[in-house]
Amino acid sequence: MEKVNLQEKLDRFQDYWHPRIVGELNGQHVKLAKLKGEFVWHSHDEEDELFLVLEGAFTMEFRDRTVHLAKGEFLIVPRGIEHRPVAENEVSILLFEPVSTVNTGNSESNLTRKNLEHL
Amino acid sequence: MEKVNLQEKLDRFQDYWHPRIVGELNGQHVKLAKLKGEFVWHSHDEEDELFLVLEGAFTMEFRDRTVHLAKGEFLIVPRGIEHRPVAENEVSILLFEPVSTVNTGNSESNLTRKNLEHL
After folding, report:
1. B54 with B94: CB under 8 angstroms?
2. Residue-wise pLDDT tens digits, B46-57
3. Is B7 an interface residue toward A (CB < 8 Å)?
4. Best of B4, B5, B22, B26 to mutate (most A CBs within 10 Å, chain A)
5. What are A63-119's pLDDT values in tens digits?
6. What is the pTM of this model?
7. In which band, very low, low, confident or very high, does the pLDDT at A1 lie, cut at 50, 70 and 90?
8. Strands (E), chain A
9. In chain B, at which residue ranges do the beta strands (DSSP E only) sit?
10. Cα radius of gyration rounded to whole Å, chain A
């Protein structure tokens, strides 16, 4: 039962689109990630995902609209909804999602990250 | 599927120890609360709780030690562990916890808040 300092954890990695696990509770993971550029279109069959911006800003694209998210804002993407994060500049985010969640959902590719590191 | 601005939601209430719901996913609630003073000792039989400090600082007391939490830090309190938040000055926090969670856990009192408002 140790506290987690978000900035201290963020300082420990620099690669993009590669989430790290920083907490687990009730079958959910708390993850941190840095994003820059365009991700792949994907959805998660069984998992809702929360994206909270810690530093910077990015855009969540949906097939019919986009949502711009800045520091201190979060968005919940329900299961089954296709989405694609796009970050013009580097952004740091916190994710809250079931432990079963894979970053690329139903679109496995070379961007897929499994067996995530616990920081 | 609307984004949530944490500060905008925090500006909408001022009372202490009275969480508001600002999101729901995977059977979990995202809540915001403002704390000042001493809460009651309690535990939750079935729910782990995450406390993330958005503004200010507070201390989580356990029976055998205390953890001081400042802005940008979070702590996960596992189910069954007695705890008591104490805030010398006002603090704003974000909570992640199952929808079944009651703020005072097994210590129902006049501080218990049920049927929480969705902001």
Report:
1. yes
2. 999 999 999 999
3. yes
4. B26
5. 999 999 999 999 999 999 999 999 999 999 999 999 999 999 999 999 999 999 999
6. 0.97
7. confident
8. 4-5, 20-25, 28-38, 49-55, 57-62, 66-70, 73-77, 83-98
9. 4-5, 20-25, 28-38, 49-55, 57-61, 66-70, 73-77, 84-98
10. 13
What is the percent of chain B where pLDDT is above 90?
A: 99
Q: Which CATH class is domain B6-98?
A: mainly beta
Asked whether A11 and B82 are in contact (CB, 8 A), the reply is no
CB B1 within 8 A of CB A76: yes
- Confirm or reject contact between B67 and chain A (CB < 8 A): yes
Average pLDDT over residues A11-37: 98
**Contact between residue B82 and residue B62 where contact means Cβ atoms under 8 Å apart:** yes
Residue holding tokens 């990250």?
A: A113
pLDDT at B1: 83
- The pair phi, psi for residue B38, each rounded to 5°, is -110, 135
Q: With contacts defined as CB-CB under 8 Å, which chain B residues touch A26?
A: 27-28, 47-48, 97-98
> Which residues on B lie below 8 Å from A1 (Cβ)?
62, 67, 75-78, 81
Contact A21/B at CB under 8 A: no
User: End-to-end CA distance of chain A, in Å?
Assistant: 14
User: Which chain A residues have a beta carbon less than 8 Å from that of B3?
Assistant: 67, 69, 73-75
Name the minimum distance, in Å, from the CA of B115 to any CA of chain A: 21
- With the C-alpha atoms ordered A78, A82, A87, A93, is the resulting torsion angle positive or negative? positive
